[in-house]
């Protein structure tokens, strides 16, 4: 096991962005920044506005800042961007004024992505950080994209023999073209059903219709949030069980939790509003450890690790299960930042500061592994092409 460097690291925390989960992202980022020990880290907040403008400045470390409508007008808040050029390894901030003034380069040792949902949790932000060659916390591009897409997650897990609740995928174009056909397919599944946006989290847009009329109304709404939806039969009497994971090659599974819902499913309000929004998921009610037999507990923990490895996960994730008649089904895999689960690791004896320390260590470890791969390969192809000696090759 490698340790953190014996120096203060510069950590960029990226949050906000063009996502319906924008507000959740702000709360998550504040939790991360509070957990980062100032004796070990220089924390650089990087906030992406709802319109996609990148900002940085000390005021962005304060949750109260985001009650102001125009954050960009605050003193000390400036536009910035992450450079995709590996030589920069950081963020570029233009000068406030002056024709001859130069951009400022701020190198980042590691980035903590805290963008929930679109343009962040879905592999897009991870792709930028790969191009920039900056170490980052959490899953890579592939695992982030797979876990963000519920239909692809089901396909991959099913291929690995991991149980999931089978349903169907409905596309926006299909709904607009053939509503009656779609409703007939839903009827065949049997009500009640769950209707979920295919690529969103935080329970945004989820509904549980009990008839065709309610399903049609739900689809009209959810297709404003996503181009595809997942429709699943509701497992009557099932309970939710969650398991958090930490690790790259060696993966550690947490204690299990059973979230307590007062609705038919764990809603956005119960996840984030009950007990105060600043607490995030910690504000929801839960049983830790989940009151399950030891053998079933171990089965679920092992399934969580298998699911994480199936999507090529690294760093951290939280795997959510539905449990009915002692049969667990993987419901979702929540990669960073939906997977911090400080409360689960606290039950294991880890403080939030220790969790972020471990996540940063894992990020640096993953980056060192990446650097073992050769990316620069020079062949004689260009010289031969210039000389016209590519006989038998296909035309480009």
Q: Which descriptors would you attach to this protein?
A:
396 residues, alpha+beta, Rossmann fold, Dna Ligase, domain 1, D-amino Acid Aminotransferase, Chain A, domain 1, 5-stranded mixed β-sheet, 5-stranded antiparallel β-sheet, 31% helix, globular
Average per-residue pLDDT, rounded, comes to: 90
Helix percentage range: 25-40%
Shape: globular
Can you tell me the number of structural domains? 3
> Per CATH, what is the topology of the largest domain?
Rossmann fold
Strand order of the largest sheet: 4-3-2-1-8
Radius of gyration: 23 Å
Q: Return residue spans where pLDDT drops below 50 for at least 5 consecutive residues.
A: none
Tell me the β content: 15-25%
Kindly name the structural category. alpha+beta
Topology order in helix (H) and strand (E) letters: EHEEEEEEEHHHEHHEHEEEHEHEEHHH
Give the N-to-C terminal Cα separation: 47 Å
Q: Number of DSSP helices?
A: 12
Q: How would you characterize the largest beta sheet?
A: 5 strands, mixed
Give the class-level CATH name of the largest domain. Alpha Beta
Please identify, by name, the CATH architecture of the largest domain. Answer: 3-Layer(aba) Sandwich
- How many β-strands, per DSSP? 16
């Amino acid at each position: 096991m490698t340790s953190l460097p014996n120096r203060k690291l510069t950590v960029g925390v990226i949050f906000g962005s063009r996502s319906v989960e924008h507000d959740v992202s702000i709360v998550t980022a504040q939790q991360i920044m509070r957990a980062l020990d100032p004796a070990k880290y220089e924390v650089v907040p990087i906030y992406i506005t709802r319109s996609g403008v990148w900002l940085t400045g000390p005021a962005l470390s304060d949750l109260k800042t985001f009650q102001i409508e125009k954050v960009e007008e605050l003193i000390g808040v400036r536009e910035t961007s992450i450079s995709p050029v590996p030589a920069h390894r950081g963020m570029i901030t233009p000068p406030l004024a002056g024709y001859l003034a130069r951009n400022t380069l701020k190198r980042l040792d590691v980035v903590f992505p805290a963008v929930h949902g679109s343009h962040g949790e879905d592999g897009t932000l991870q792709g930028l950080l790969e191009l920039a060659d900056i170490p980052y916390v959490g899953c890579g591009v592939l695992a982030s994209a797979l876990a963000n897409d519920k239909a692809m997650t089901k396909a991959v897990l099913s291929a690995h023999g991991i149980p999931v609740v089978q349903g169907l995928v409905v596309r926006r174009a299909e709904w607009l073209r053939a509503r009656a056909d779609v409703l007939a397919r839903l009827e065949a599944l049997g009500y009640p059903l769950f209707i979920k946006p295919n690529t969103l989290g935080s329970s945004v847009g989820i509904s549980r219709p009990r008839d065709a009329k309610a399903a049609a109304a739900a689809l009209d709404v959810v297709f404003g949030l996503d181009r595809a939806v997942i429709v699943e039969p509701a497992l009557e009497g099932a309970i939710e069980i969650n398991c958090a994971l930490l690790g790259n090659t060696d993966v550690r599974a947490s204690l299990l939790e059973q979230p307590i819902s007062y609705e038919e499913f764990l809603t956005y309000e119960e996840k984030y509003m009950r007990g105060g929004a600043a607490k995030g998921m910690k504000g929801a009610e839960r049983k830790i450890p989940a009151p399950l037999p030891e053998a079933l507990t171990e089965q679920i923990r092992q399934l969580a690790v298998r699911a994480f490895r199936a999507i090529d996960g690294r760093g951290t994730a939280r795997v959510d299960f539905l449990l009915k008649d002692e049969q667990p089904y993987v419901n979702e895999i929540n990669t960073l930042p939906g997977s911090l689960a400080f409360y689960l690791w606290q039950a294991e004896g880890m403080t939030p500061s220790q969790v972020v320390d471990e996540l940063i260590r894992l990020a640096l470890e993953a980056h060192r592994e990446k650097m073992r791969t050769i990316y620069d390969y020079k062949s004689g192809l260009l010289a031969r092409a210039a000389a016209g000696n590519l006989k038998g090759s296909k035309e480009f």
